[in-house]
Amino acid sequence: MKAVRMHGYGGVEQLFYEDAPEPRLVQSGDVIVKLKAAAINHIDIWNRMGVTGIAVPMPHILGADGAGIVAEVGANVGNVKAGDRVCLYPLTGCDQCEFCLTDRDFMCFRLRVLGERLEGTYARYVKLPAQNCFPIPADYSFEEAAAFPLVFITLWRMLVTNAELKPGETVLIIGIGGGVASASLQVAKKIGARVIVTSGSEEKLARAKNLGADHGIHHRTQDFVAEVRRLTGERGVDVVLDCVGGEVWRKSLTCLALEGRLVTCGATAGGHAVDDIAAICSKELKIYGSTLGSREEFRLLSNFLNRAKIRPIIDSVFPLREAAAAQRYVEEARQFGKVVLKIPD
Ligand SMILES: [Zn+2]
Known about the structure:
Layout: E1 2-6, E2 15-19, E3 30-39, H1 42-49, E4 60-61, E5 65-73, E6 85-88, E7 91-92, E8 112-113, E9 125-129, E10 133-135, H2 142-147, H3 149-162, E11 170-173, H4 179-191, E12 194-199, H5 202-210, E13 215-218, H6 224-231, E14 237-241, H7 248-254, E15 256-264, H8 277-282, E16 286-289, H9 295-308, E17 314-319, H10 323-331, E18 338-342
Parallel strand pairs: 11-12, 11-14, 12-13, 14-15, 15-16, 17-18
Antiparallel strand pairs: 1-2, 1-4, 3-5, 3-9, 3-18, 5-6, 6-10, 7-8
Bound molecules: zinc ion.
């Protein structure tokens, strides 16, 4: 089959569009999916660079997000059949630890994610457990079905499960433009929250306004802490989504109202931020770190997307053979929404 494989850790020059062996069914609970689309995530880039600390045999197929048609099912599979259109819940655990035994395998110490410890979705076929196959929401295209799982499950756990964002509350989203941030904007608006976003790009702020953002703050020309104070009548916001970290982190804490919640799923500007512990205590702040989410959260999320008629934002679609160019585009942070790979028949 055709696939994009990584031959070593490093830059995009390590990615090759080439022939690779097709996956074979071994476990009776597994399925093989003929992929129609995959999506690019930062996790693919970190895996390619070798900064995750996870060593994989080379050559290796990247890609955590995908959607396609079930091609083959193991003897014990009952939830899907050949021909079903499916999107993929991207991780699986060991089935034995306390987390796996209580529907929290995303917290498993032996977590395996597609494209990480498992062969990924930059390929014509992928093998995975049948319980990771979910129906594609409503009338999504394969590109849309590949674009939503990783970012939406991540934001769902952050904003809905952990921060418990409520209608009428105000949320501040730092750095609108990335997949999680733009998807958070969509979900927060449907929940009924007031949404303030920041960006260093006028174009991204304009796109966020078109998606329903109530206020946009240009963080290079405006002091976003002062602006948030002004917009909230000195009160501050209920929730901040900060996946930037670094210098921004302390400002994010400053923007929170009493009993405010800060959620994060990473730190693109540096993971060793300075906390304002006095503010955390005196304002009774809560800080939630999140990584992915459970199958139950994925099921609720899929239902929500159907009911709320949310479609993932797709910035651009590259052919599979141009995966290297697509990754470079994401590394340069030029996108608004998701960058998708279309997989040829
Ligand atoms: Zn486990």
